[in-house]
Every structure is written in C-alpha cells, then in structure tokens.
Specification:
Blueprint lengths: L2 H18 L6 E7 L1 H4 L10 H17 L2 E6 L8 E4 H7 L3 E2 L10 H9 L3 E4 L6 E5 L12 E4 L5 E2 L2 E8 L20
Parallel strand pairs: 1-2, 1-6
Antiparallel strand pairs: 2-3, 3-5, 4-5, 6-9, 7-9, 8-9
Helix pairs in contact: 1-3, 3-5
Amino acid sequence: MDSETIKSQLITAVNEYFNQVTLPENGLFVLGFSSSEVRGDWMGQNSSAEIGEVVIQTLLPILQAHHVNLAVQGCQHINRALLLEREVADRRGYEIVSVVPQLHAGGAGQVAAYKAFKDPVEVERIVADGGMDIGDTQIGMHVRWVQIPVKTSVKEIGAAHTTFLTSRPKLIGGPRAIYDWPDDQQL
C-alpha cells in the first residue's frame, strides 16, 4: 500500500467524521491502529514504521485544526497503554506509567507519535470523547459512555477495516425527565 493512498483515505475519512461530529475543545481523540492490518497482514505480524509515520503525520494537523488532542493506543504487549502529551495527561489527572514504545511493543502508531509529540507519556487508562480504529484494535474501552458509531464513506485504510466512535452524556431519568432546558421553563 503506497503512502499517498493511505494519506488520501485517512484525510477523507477523518474530514467526513468531523463533518458529522463536534468534539469539545481540548477534547481527546483516541487512535487504535495496526500498520500490519493496513498492509493486509495479521495484526502485529508485519509492522511498518513508514505507515505509522504517514498516519500520525496526516492525522495530527487535522486534530489540531479542531483543537482536539490525540491519544494513541498501544498493542497488547504494553497492555493497551496510551501515548499522549504530558500536558494532556496532567490536565486530565491521568497516572503516568513507565514504558517507551517500540515497533513490536506499542506499535508503529505509538512510535511515530512518540517522535511527533513534544513531551510524550504513557498512561494506562483514558476517557476519550471519540476516536478512530484502523484494523479492529478495539478502542471502545477508551471512549466514554455512551458510545455512538460514526459512518464514513471510507471503510478501509489500506487493507484495514476502519471504524469511528463519538460519545454523548448518558440520558438519565424516567418519563418526566427532559434533556434540554426550554426557554420558557419556570423553576
């Protein structure tokens, strides 16, 4: 899979996502990503630093334009730890853990993000506002409840299945509950 095709597919998919979804300013977008799957191989079997670089270098400017921060999910060999900027981890109160991603322990996306971030750190858990999964890496555990799938015209990046999620606050209450404050409502 050539870099320009991957870049083009990613730009189209992420722009379509943001045409449907508005994440909060300084929100958190989680990326789950398998460069092996993009190449058409089984996850973790043929990692590509080049594909990792293309994905991260393409995604970061789009997220920055939307004032959204990136967290990159690592592979199972680092227990799906997440790489993000220290400032984001500190602001959100996430506990930092010690591990430096490698191509086969963290993955190509984490390695590329580690190089691109100003002050990268790893954390065990996050609560993201939305995200993108390239290669069925299962990002749902990192997106806050209630998760909402978002459809785009791009079903694959390279050979990897692609899905998106956003989220909304839980709707609680019973039959008397309302979820928007009417302008004419009396207390």
